[in-house]
Structure formats: C-alpha cells, structure tokens
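User: Some background: our group keeps a shared notebook of sequences we're curious about, and every so often someone picks one and asks for a predicted structure to add to the entry. Today it's my turn. The entry only has the sequence so far, pasted here. Could you supply the structure so I can complete it?
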Amino acid sequence: MEIQLFGKQNCGKCESTKKKLHHFVSKYAGEGLVEMSVFDLDSMDGMAEGMFRDVHEVPTTIIQDGGEDVIRWEGVIPDSEELKAHFVGRA
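Assistant: Of course. Here's the predicted structure to add to the notebook entry:
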C-alpha cells in the first residue's frame, strides 16, 4: 500500500494531515508494509507529480494498493474512521 500526500509549505491542513498519516502508519501498519510519499507543490518536482496525479487542491491524500487508487481526499484532512478502515489488518 502506498500513501501520497500533496501539500504546500505554510498550509495548516497539510501539516495536520501529514501528522495524522504518520500516526496511522505507525499505529496500524506493520513496518515496511506502507510506503508514504510527501510532495511539496511549491517545488518543481512536487508540481510535476501533482500535475501527473491531477491534483488541484491541498491537501490531497491518495491511498493506492497494487498501483490502483483506492481512495482520495481533496482539500480536507482524511477522516480517522475512513483511514483506519484502510490500515486495519495490514500489520
């Protein structure tokens, strides 16, 4: 499973989302079972990846499994119960 977070510097929702995702990865996922990538849309590399992934709002969180998008949140902090449903059983 892979989590992709797209955000910007000085974005409160982006920082809160990053902290929440780190918490869920450490609490519910076994070590090495979840890969997390954070893309800064203020950088050229982040903008390029954001364009490729069709990101228009921050924060945008995408969970992929087997290379396919499972769920996507745009402009909001992901709901804890929805996140938990994707992590339980991964450990």
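Suggested note for the entry: The first strand starts at residue 2 and ends at 7. Strands lie at 2-7, 35-40, 60-65, 68-74.
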